[in-house]
Specification:
Elements lengths: L2 H8 L2 E2 L5 H6 L11 H4 L1 H13 L4 E3 L7 H4 L6 H19 L4 E6 L14 H17 L4 E7 L2 H12 L6 E5 L13 H11 L3 E5 L4 H8 L10 E4 L5 E4 L2 E4 L3 H13 L4 E2 L7 H12 L21 H4 L4 E6 L8 H11 L5 E4 L11 H11 L4 E6 L5 H13 L4 E5 L20 H12 L16 E6 L6 H14 L3 E6 L3 H11 L6 E7 L3 H10 L7 H9 L5 H13 L5 E6 L4 H13 L1
Parallel strand pairs: 1-10, 2-3, 3-4, 4-5, 5-6, 6-7, 7-10, 11-12, 11-18, 12-13, 13-14, 14-15, 15-16, 16-17, 17-18
Antiparallel strand pairs: 8-9
Helix pairs in contact: 4-6, 4-12, 6-7, 7-8, 8-9, 11-12, 17-18, 22-23
C-alpha cells in the first residue's frame, strides 16, 4: 500500500494512457461498455496492459473506468465479476513482465447527476462508490484512481466514501475547460485543494484538454500549492471521420510536452483519450533523458440596416474580422475593439457562435449590438449543434428581424468539447440542408414548404478547407454547398498560398467569391498546438522554420502580413482571425496588408 507513496517521493512517475481507444482498434464498438470487455475480450485488455508496461509505464490502470451500475445498464449483474477480473488481469500482466509496475484501480463518474438536477442523493452516490471500491480493494490494487470527474461534489462523495474504511493511496483527477473551470462550474485551483483535503494523495487534471491547454491551466499552480499533481492530457481535440473518432496529437508532440511539464514541476504524468503505448514510450524517453532548460515564455494570451454582402462581394475585395462575443453581460470592451478595427476600413465582422462549444453571449443579440453601436455589418455564424428544425427557422426569422442579413452556415463543434459536455448535440440537418432552408426563406417558403407572408433577404456563406487531407471529398462537399445556394465561401485559415490556389482552381466556381481565412499565429508554441491538437489545421514546415529562426513578438504578425499580401492576388477577400486577440496588432496587420 505504501509503494505508491514512496514512489512519488523518489522519482518521476509515469501512468499509462488510453484503454478505450485501443479497445476500439481491436474492433470493440464505440457504443459498447469498455469495462465489459474484461469479460468478453480479456486477452485484448491483457495485451494493452502489457504494451503499456513495455512502453515504460510505472503504473497501469485497470479497465474499470465505466464499471458501475448506471453505465453497465443491463449488465450491472456482472459488476462484481468485472471489477475482480480487471484487477487480476492487470496483476497477471505485471507478473508476466517481470517489472516492478504498480496497479491503479480506476473508478470513473457514475454518469448521472445528483439531486435536484438528477435522480440520486448524495448518500446513495456515496454508497455506490463504497461498494465499487470495496470489491476492488479485495483484489489488492496498489492504489485507486478517481478520474475524469467534472463535479467536485461527486468527487467528494467518492473519496470520502473510501476514506471511511481504507487508507489506500488515492489519485483524483478532474476534467476542466481551457479557463480552468469544470463543466459543473468548479475551478481547478479550488478542486485540487479540496480533493487533497478529502484525503487524496495526488490531485490533477485529465481528459478533454490536450497537452497545451492542460499545461496552461495546471502549471501556474505547481509552486503555489505543495500538493503532488498529475496531468493526463488527451491527444488533442477529437475529430470524427466516417463515424469514427480520431485524435491528432502524435507521440513526438507528447514527448515535447512531457519535457515542458517536467521543467515546470509536474512529477506525475500520464495520458488519456486518443493516446497509445507509443505516446507513453515517448513520454518515458523524456523522463529518462530529462535535463532542465529554460521554458519559453507564453504570450498573453428596420431602417438603416447595412445591406447583405452579396451586393459588394463581386465588386470589391472583402475584409472581415472574426470576433467572439463576451462571456458575460459586459460587452463594452469587445465593442471598443470592433470600433477600433472598423477604422481600418473592413467590410464586416464575423460573429462566432459558442466556438469549441464554449458558452458565450448569443451571437444574434451581440450582432444586434454591433449594428446599433458600430454600424458595421455582422456575419452571423449560425451553427446546427444546438438547434432542431423548429429552432433553426425560429432563430433565422429572429435574426432577420434584428437586422442581420449575413449568415455563415456551419456545423458547430460538438457539445462534448465544451463547457457542458452532457448538453444535447442536435444536428437535425447538415450544412447543405441549412443553406437550402435559408435560401427557401429568401423565396418566401418555410421548412414545411408553406408560403410565408414575407421573404427574408439573407446572404449566406459556407465553409471550406483547402488544406483537407481528403481534397476530393472536400471539393465535392463545397460544390454541394454552392449548388444549394451558398453566395460565398470562407475557408479555414490558409497557411499555404499554393494550396489555396490549387483548391480554387480545382473547385472551378468562378462566380462564387472565395474569401481566404488568414490567421495570425502568435508564436511557435501556438503553431505547434494547431498542428497537433486542432482538427482541420495543417501548418507548413516553412512557417515553423520562420518561427525557429526568429520567434519574436512580431514574427507571427509578419508571417500573416506576408500571406495576406499574397492572398490578395488570388482570393476574393480575407477573413482575419487573431490568436493573440490584441487590438493594436490586429489593426497593424490589416493596415499593412491593405496598404501594400
Amino acid at each position: 500500500m505504501e509503494k505508491f507513496r514512496s514512489l512519488i517521493k523518489e522519482k518521476i512517475v509515469l501512468f499509462d494512457g488510453a484503454m478505450g481507444t485501443l479497445l476500439l482498434d481491436y474492433g470493440v464498438s464505440e457504443a459498447d461498455n469498455k469495462s465489459l470487455q474484461t469479460l468478453k475480450n480479456s486477452e485484448f485488455v491483457k495485451n494493452i496492459h502489457s504494451d503499456y508496461i513495455r512502453s515504460g509505464a510505472d503504473v497501469i490502470t485497470t479497465n474499470t473506468f465505466d464499471a458501475n451500475p448506471y453505465k453497465l445498464k443491463n449488465n450491472k449483474d456482472k459488476l462484481n465479476d468485472i471489477l475482480k477480473l480487471s484487477v487480476k488481469i492487470a496483476r497477471e500482466s505485471v507478473k508476466t513482465s517481470g517489472k516492478n509496475v504498480l496497479v491503479a484501480a480506476s473508478i470513473g463518474p457514475l454518469g448521472i447527476m445528483l439531486r435536484p438536477y438528477g435522480i440520486i442523493s448524495y448518500q446513495e452516490m456515496s454508497d455506490i462508490y463504497s461498494k465499487i471500491a470495496s470489491i476492488l480493494l479485495k483484489e489488492k490494487p496498489d492504489l485507486l484512481i478517481f478520474e475524469t470527474f467534472s463535479s467536485l461534489l461527486e468527487m467528494k462523495s467518492a473519496i470520502m466514501a473510501v476514506r471511511k474504511f481504507s487508507s489506500i493511496p488515492i489519485v483524483s483527477s478532474m476534467t476542466f475547460n481551457t479557463d480552468g473551470i469544470s463543466a459543473m462550474g468548479d475551478s481547478l485551483e479550488r478542486s485540487i485543494v479540496e480533493m487533497h483535503s478529502y484525503g487524496s494523495d495526488v490531485t490533477g487534471v485529465n481528459c478533454f484538454l490536450g497537452p497545451k491547454d492542460s499545461f496552461d491551466i495546471i502549471t501556474p499552480l505547481v509552486k503555489k500549492y505543495k500538493i503532488p499533481l498529475i496531468v493526463q492530457p488527451n491527444a488533442g481535440l477529437p475529430t470524427v471521420v466516417n463515424n469514427k473518432t480520431f485524435y491528432l496529437s502524435n507521440p513526438q508532440y507528447f514527448k515535447e510536452y512531457a519535457n515542458l511539464f517536467l521543467e515546470n514541476g509536474i512529477r506525475i504524468l500520464g495520458s488519456c483519450c486518443g493516446t497509445t503505448p507509443k505516446h507513453t514510450s515517448e513520454m518515458h524517453d523524456s523522463i529518462v533523458n530529462f535535463i532542465p532548460r529554460k521554458v519559453p515564455a507564453f504570450s498573453d494570451s428596420s431602417d438603416n440596416i447595412p445591406p447583405g454582402l452579396k451586393k459588394i462581394l463581386k465588386k470589391q475585395f472583402i475584409y472581415t474580422v472574426e470576433i467572439t462575443p463576451p462571456k458575460s453581460l459586459i460587452y463594452e470592451k469587445t465593442l471598443n475593439k470592433i470600433n477600433e478595427i472598423k477604422k481600418t476600413g473592413i467590410n464586416a465582422i464575423n460573429v462566432t457562435e459558442n466556438p469549441l462549444a464554449k458558452i458565450r453571449m448569443s451571437p444574434s443579440a451581440f450582432s444586434k449590438i454591433i449594428l446599433e453601436k458600430s454600424g458595421i455589418p455582422p456575419i452571423l455564424h449560425f451553427t446546427l449543434r444546438d438547434r432542431n428544425l423548429l429552432a433553426i427557422q425560429s432563430d433565422l426569422l429572429g435574426a432577420h428581424a434584428l437586422g442581420i442579413r449575413n449568415i455563415f452556415a456551419i456545423r458547430g463543434d460538438p457539445s462534448i468539447m465544451g463547457d457542458f459536455p452532457r448538453a444535447t448535440t442536435v444536428y437535425d440537418v447538415n450544412t447543405v440542408e441549412l443553406i437550402k432552408i435559408v435560401k427557401n426563406l429568401n423565396l418566401g417558403i418555410d421548412i414545411t414548404g408553406r408560403k410565408t407572408k414575407n421573404r427574408t433577404e439573407f446572404t449566406v456563406g459556407a465553409a471550406a478547407n483547402p488544406g483537407s487531407s481528403d481534397l476530393n471529398s472536400e471539393i465535392e462537399r463545397v460544390k454541394q454547398k454552392i449548388r444549394a445556394g451558398a453566395d460565398f465561401i470562407i475557408t479555414q485559415p490558409v497557411f499555404s498560398v499554393d494550396k489555396f490556389i490549387a483548391f480554387k482552381k480545382r473547385l472551378n466556381e468562378p462566380s462564387t467569391p472565395i474569401i481566404a481565412g488568414l490567421m495570425e499565429v502568435k508564436d511557435l508554441r501556438y503553431a505547434d498546438f494547431l498542428e497537433n491538437e486542432v482538427p482541420g489545421f495543417s501548418i507548413p514546415e516553412e512557417i515553423f522554420v520562420k518561427f525557429r529562426d526568429s520567434d519574436t513578438e512580431d514574427t507571427g504578425a509578419d508571417i500573416a502580413v506576408e500571406l495576406g499580401r499574397e492572398l490578395k492576388k488570388s482570393a476574393d477577400g480575407i477573413y482575419f482571425v487573431s490568436s493573440s486577440g490584441k487590438t493594436k496588432k490586429i489593426v497593424d496587420i490589416l493596415k499593412r496588408i491593405m496598404d501594400e
